[in-house]
Each structure stands twice: as C-alpha cells, then as structure tokens.
Design a protein that fits this description.
The chain is mostly helical. The chain contains 18 helices and five strands. The strands form two sheets. Strands 1-2-3 form a three-stranded antiparallel beta sheet, sandwiched between helices. Helix 6 runs parallel beside helix 9 and helix 11 packs across helix 12. The radius of gyration is 21 Å and the shape is globular. The chain starts with 11 loop residues before the first helix and ends in a 5-residue tail after the last helix. The N terminus is likely disordered.
C-alpha cells in the first residue's frame, strides 16, 4: 500500500482538454452534501434517530469489552468491519481541516453535517486515549478473520479483538495522528462548543506527550503487528506524525514550545524527506503546507525550510514546470500506483486549494524555476481533478456513488452489497454472504457519497466488486474531498 511516485510530463493543454469538451457545470453543492452523507454509512455503534443512510443499523456494540472499556462508535475504514485507528485518525484530521479552511464556504446545513461527521470520529478517538492512563487503543477487529467473511456489520460474529499499546511501548504514529486530529478538531468546534473543544485539546496534548515520549512505530509492537500489517503498517516512519501533531498544536494554541519543537526537530525527524507524499501514512506534504501558513502570513522565516518543501511539492504538480514529476493518466487524473488512487487525488487537490489560499492572502505566487505559478493555476489544477471524479472522464462515469445518473453500482463494500437488515432481518452468516459478493447484480443499498478507488492508469474502470483496489471506498478518500467541494461550492469558476 506504500505509495510511489512515477515520472511523466504532461502538457497543460491535455490536462484542460476534458473540461473544454464537457464544459463543466457540476453541482458541487449536491456533491458536497453526498460526500458528507457517506460517513453515515460507515458508522459503528448505536446509530442516532436522524440516521440518513437508513439501510444501516447498530453494530459493534460490545467493542472494548475484553478490556472492560467502551470502544463503541467510530468508523469502519472502508468496505470491511474493522476500526483501524491510524486511518480513522487521519480521516478525522482531514475532516477538521476541511471545516477550518473551507467551513465558511459550506451552506449552513452542510457545515452542521460536517461537524456531526467530525464528532462521530472525535468521540471515538477520545475513548482511545482518555480512559486508561499510558495506554492508547489503536484498533478494534481482527482483519484476517473479518476479511475472510462477507457479512453485514450488524451481523458481525467475528472476533472483535482489541489492539492496545501500553507505555513504554511506542505508538508515535497513531498517537501523533490522534493528537493532530483532536487538536485540529478543537479548532473546528471552538465557536460552536467551546467546552468540547477544551476537552479535545487537553487530550490532544496528552496524546502528543505519549507519542513523543515513547518514540517508535505502533506496528513494531509484537502484539499489534499481525493485526495491522499489511493493511495499515507504518511504512514511512513515525517521525512525520510527531512534526505533524506538533504543527497542529502550534496552530491551535500558538504556544512557543510547539514552535520550538518544529524548528529544533525538523532535521532530526526528517522534515525534508519524502516531501511529495500526503496520506494516512505520510504527512510530509501536508505538514509543509500547514506550517507554510506561519511563514506566509506570520513572517516566521525561521520556518522557511518547510515552505521551500511545500513550494517544491507544488511545482511537481505543474505539467509545464521543469520539476514536474507527478504521473497523470492520459485524460489528466493524478495517478500513483498501488491501488485506491483517488486517495491521492483528493488529498493533493485539498493541498492545492489550501496553499493557493495562503498564497493569495499574501499576494504571492509560486516560482517553479522556469515559470511563475499563480494561486489561480493551482485552483484550476484542483478543479480538473474534481471534475474528472464527478464525471468529466473517458468513462463518462461519476466516481461518487449517487452523484449523476452514471456511477459505480458494484462497490466493494459489505453493508452496501448485502441485503439490508431492514429488508432481510434474518442473520447472514460469514460465508453465506459469498453469494452476494459473487453476484453480478448491483448493490442493493447505494452507499451515497462514497468515492471508490477509481480508474487505472489507462482511465479505465471496470465496475467489479472483487477488484477492491478500484471499487472499494475509504473514509480517507472522502475526508479531504469535503473541503475541496466546499471551496468549489463558493467558487465554481476559480480565477
């Protein structure tokens, strides 16, 4: 699952071709509404009365019992029934960052829905760090056993194994990402619920202290490794999460101690390594964009190295730049090998828009060696990615379930592909679901708003439930897309 970067140059004229042919005209507000709605289909725990994905019901109600702890709630990460803490924390961070940067662009009801989706994540993450001292819960569910079954979350009879890390054993990556998620969320909730924001920030600081004191990767612990690998191993090291969480705590608190941490530990924690990646495992590109705000808007020139890395990353995305080395499909979609490609597209599009805003507020442009790049150019590149996802592509297919008339019908998702418990109240056991997995019929329960993994490097998508690399949705594909769509609701034609 570790992302790699291939090298391909693409003239800007090709990148614009599809938008010229199709002419745009997407309903970004409808897409935003559905993008947020998706998260209700991923909920674990007791569902509220206003649950809108009505084919879902309560699940995972005994989670945590082996530790005599309440670990109900949270999100299933993808098309299975496991609660992986590492990607769930990143999902939460990105939902919070979406609200922080683009909440003002959301219609009021969608701003509220985004905060509801965010709180479903933060309520769970609080349980993972606040209930027992010097312990972080990093996962619920045995993925090997779970993946051997095709059953609804409401019917789960597989082992709900709880994976925990106790000090002095390390979990810098998950604890660091949890600290980032809780601190960013405290900022998102500050105006509407200051008491809750205080609770989030207090626990963020505690999670960061755990991450920094007991340094190392959570997947290096023998009691955790077999449960998280190869699915969400820490492939890229834990150091980026330490800087990332410190950067968020600095953003929220303006505390000089976190500023010193970012300045003094940048070299030793590899701030200049792997700067062209951003996702659940590698935070470097996001870290550099986040810190660049202080350089651009706060004149913190002692953090200039982070901005330089952000500039370098942005230049790799400019087809006309001499430093361009991001691969695009023939029709212009950002492409990285390894599966679930749209996770890269949505997260990179998010960074493009955030960085464009930081530059625009300070009347800056981006120098990419042989060319100067305006904030508008960065926004236009992001728009091409968004419009491709929503249907401006050779397949004429929206890669968001429920958006437009043509979208994937056979996504790799247990709850979506099996009869709803409302329509089929009798349990469907582990192997009894195989007939539905192997069926060529469309999923009976559309997971509205879900973004699938997306097409291959040839722009081709086969609507195949078994091809999980292309057809499986994940929370961390959708989370940054919330912010991206919110921007285009307010700015459908960036200039």
């Amino acid at each position: 699952m570790k992302p790699m970067t291939h090298f391909l140059s693409l003239p800007l004229i090709l990148l614009c071709l599809l938008a010229t042919v199709h002419g745009g005209g997407h309903d970004y507000q409808d897409a935003l509404s559905k993008c947020i709605l998706f998260f209700e289909g991923q909920r674990s725990g007791v569902l509220p009365q206003d649950q809108r994905q009505s084919w879902r019901a309560n699940s995972g109600l005994s989670d945590g019992w082996t530790y005599n702890t309440d670990l109900t709630g949270g999100y299933y990460d993808a098309g299975d029934n496991v609660k992986f803490g590492f990607p769930m924390a990143f999902t939460t961070t990105m939902l919070a960052w979406s609200v922080i940067e683009f909440g003002d662009s959301m219609p009021p009801n969608e701003h509220r829905n985004a905060l509801v989706a965010l709180r479903w994540g933060t309520d769970y993450l609080l349980k993972t760090v606040s209930q027992q001292p010097n312990r972080i819960f990093v996962q619920v569910g045995d993925p090997i056993i779970d993946h051997n079954c095709w059953e609804r979350p409401e019917d789960m009879d597989t082992a709900r194994t709880v994976y925990a890390v106790d000090s002095p054993n390390p979990a810098s990556d998950v604890a660091g990402e949890t600290a980032a998620a809780l601190s960013a969320s405290s900022m998102a909730f500050r105006s509407s619920d200051p008491g809750y924001a205080d609770t989030l920030l207090r626990n963020a600081m505690k999670a960061f202290e755990f991450a920094d004191t007991y340094r190392g990767a959570y997947s290096d612990n023998a009691n955790v490794r077999d449960g998280v690998c190869p699915f969400y191993c820490d492939f890229d090291g834990y150091q980026d999460e330490l800087l990332w969480s410190a950067a968020w705590l600095r953003r929220v608190t303006q505390d000089g101690g976190y500023l010193d941490y970012i300045q003094n530990n940048g070299k030793t924690l590899g701030a200049e390594d792997n700067i062209n990646e951003f996702g659940w495992d590698n935070k470097h590109a996001g870290l550099n964009v986040l810190i660049s705000k202080e350089v651009l808007e706060g004149n913190m020139y002692n953090l200039e190295s982070y901005k330089s890395s952000a500039d370098s990353f942005m230049c790799t995305l400019i087809p006309e730049s001499s430093s361009s080395h991001i691969e695009y499909t023939p029709a212009g979609l950002i492409y990285k090998p390894g599966g679930s490609n749209l996770q890269h597209v949505t997260s990179i599009s998010f960074l493009l828009l955030v960085y464009a805003n930081y530059l625009a507020r300070t009347s800056r442009s981006l120098n990419c060696g042989n060319i100067d790049v305006s904030p508008t150019t960065l926004r236009q590149i992001a728009k091409k990615q968004v419009d491709y996802i929503l249907g401006d592509n050779p397949m004429g297919l929206s890669y968001m379930v429920g958006y437009s008339d043509h979208y994937p019908q056979r996504i790799h998702h247990r709850g979506s592909s099996l009869p709803s418990i409302k329509d089929h109240p009798q349990p469907i056991a582990c192997k009894e679901g195989s007939v539905y997995f192997n069926s060529s019929n469309p999923n009976p329960n559309p997971l509205v708003g879900a973004l699938v993994g997306g097409p291959g490097e040839d722009d081709v998508y086969e609507d195949d439930r078994a091809d999980f690399r292309k057809s499986e949705p994940t929370t961390y594909i959708n989370a940054p897309f919330v912010g991206v769509l919110a921007y285009f609701v307010a700015n459908p034609s960036p200039n």
